């Protein structure tokens, strides 16, 4: 688990000026991300394309104010000793897709909060039909859906219309689904 850092307690006066009180320090972890040493290399290679190779100092996600969320996630991780497993799906196959970029940014935030995040790459997934149930990409998607505790779906929008909408029948009705449009 990440080492906590001491952040000074911040208050603002009526004019909005920021004041720091060193005496009231709050200990918060900067990241609960799964360290590379504890991660499965095959999973990291295939399902974690959102992990950047540069240092955290250059990453805008490390600058986010997530103190409360990090505390909640850290308490949950201590109490359950399990990471929340999140599957992220995006609906565009374009090489430089905005929905893919949004999906990766959401993954990076969730990963920092200690979630076990995996991304499904839809490249090669056949169009829904009654014949391709055994297709490798269909099996991969089913396996990831069964593995996960919840899903985040990111779908592209074009001229105010959704161009990719999840099937009316969810992959698994017991999962929690969040749609980012």
TrEMBL record:
Q: Drop me one GO molecular function for this one.
A: oxidoreductase activity, acting on NAD(P)H, quinone or similar compound as acceptor
Mind telling me which InterPro entries this protein's record contains? Arsenate-R_ArsH, Flavoprotein-like_sf, FMN_Rdtase-like_dom
The residue ranges of the NADPH-dependent FMN reductase-like domain are 85-161
Protein name per its UniProtKB record: DNA, SC005
């Amino acid at each position: 688990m990440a080492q906590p850092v001491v952040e000074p307690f911040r208050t603002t006066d009526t004019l909005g000026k920021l004041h720091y009180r060193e005496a009231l320090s709050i200990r918060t972890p900067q990241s609960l991300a799964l360290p590379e040493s504890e991660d499965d290399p095959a999973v990291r290679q295939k399902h974690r394309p959102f992990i950047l190779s540069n240092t955290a100092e250059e990453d805008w996600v490390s600058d986010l104010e997530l103190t409360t969320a990090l505390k909640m996630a850290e308490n949950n991780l201590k109490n359950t000793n399990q990471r929340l497993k999140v599957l992220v799906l995006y609906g565009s196959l374009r090489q430089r897709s905005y929905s893919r970029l949004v999906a990766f940014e959401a993954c990076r935030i969730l990963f920092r909060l200690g979630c076990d995040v995996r991304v499904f790459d839809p490249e090669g997934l056949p169009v829904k039909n009654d014949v391709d149930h055994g297709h490798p990409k269909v099996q991969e998607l089913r396996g990831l859906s069964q593995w996960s505790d919840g899903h985040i779906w990111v779908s592209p929008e074009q001229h105010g219309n959704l161009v990719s909408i999840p099937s009316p029948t969810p992959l698994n009705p017991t999962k929690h689904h969040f749609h980012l449009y």
